[in-house]
Design goal:
The protein has about 200 residues and is mainly α. Helix content is about 55%, strand content about 5%. The chain is elongated, with a radius of gyration of 22 Å. Keywords: Metal-binding, Zinc, Zinc-finger.
């Protein structure tokens, strides 16, 4: 027996907040910030997260449905789902129960999305920990020219910029780009386990 799926859940699973925000004309900077579309401002105070937009200026917080509803002054959340469905080609069957196949595909997509989000959090933690380890190892710099350099300091000299680069790329990449870093993240995980990072 498949769980009951609403068109609202389907819409939230089918398209992420950044895609919707960009699709509806918001300009998102490298930090994920943009001008809030719900109040007048000159400096970006709205942060775009994978599932929500939150404005630190006016306090507005919206998922893809409430964002679309408010952006276009739509009367009901179902109208926002219909607009998202049309604008982003979500292929959601509105007004009829999903078939067993559609329900199965939805459950599969939801599981894949959860698995990816779990991996993404762990991957970011790994890259961030690696960056901080490289920064910490800078403290092992020799105190004098005669002192033999510690191997941790030497390693950090060769890898600090690379660690910073990986973190920047991970932030800037889309889902496919981040997932393409899976092998690098795995290598760093192994390194961190060996070095006790």
């Amino acid at each position: 027996m498949f769980p009951k799926i609403t068109v609202f859940e389907e819409a939230r699973q089918a398209v992420d907040m950044k895609t919707v925000a960009l699709g509806y004309g918001l300009h998102i900077n490298r930090s994920g910030m943009c001008l809030c579309p719900f109040h007048a401002e000159k400096t970006p105070s709205a942060k775009v997260y994978p599932q929500r937009l939150h404005c630190f200026g006016c306090g507005e917080s919206a998922d893809v449905i409430s964002f679309t509803q408010k952006m276009f002054g739509l009367a009901k959340p179902i109208d926002a789902v219909k607009k998202l469905n049309s604008d982003f080609g979500l292929n959601i069957s509105i007004g009829q129960a999903p078939t067993a196949k559609e329900a199965s595909e939805y459950v599969k997509r939801a599981e894949e999305r959860r698995a990816y989000e779990q991996w993404e959090k762990q991957a970011w933690r790994t890259l961030n920990d690696y960056l901080w380890l490289m920064r910490d190892w800078q403290e092992y710099a020799p105190r004098s020219p005669a002192e033999k350099p510690d191997e941790r300091f030497v390693y950090s000299l060769h890898h600090l910029e690379w660690a910073e680069y990986l973190c920047r790329e991970f932030i800037d990449y889309n889902k496919a780009g981040r997932f393409s870093m899976k092998g690098v993240v795995k290598d760093i995980e192994r390194f961190m386990e060996k070095k006790g990072g």
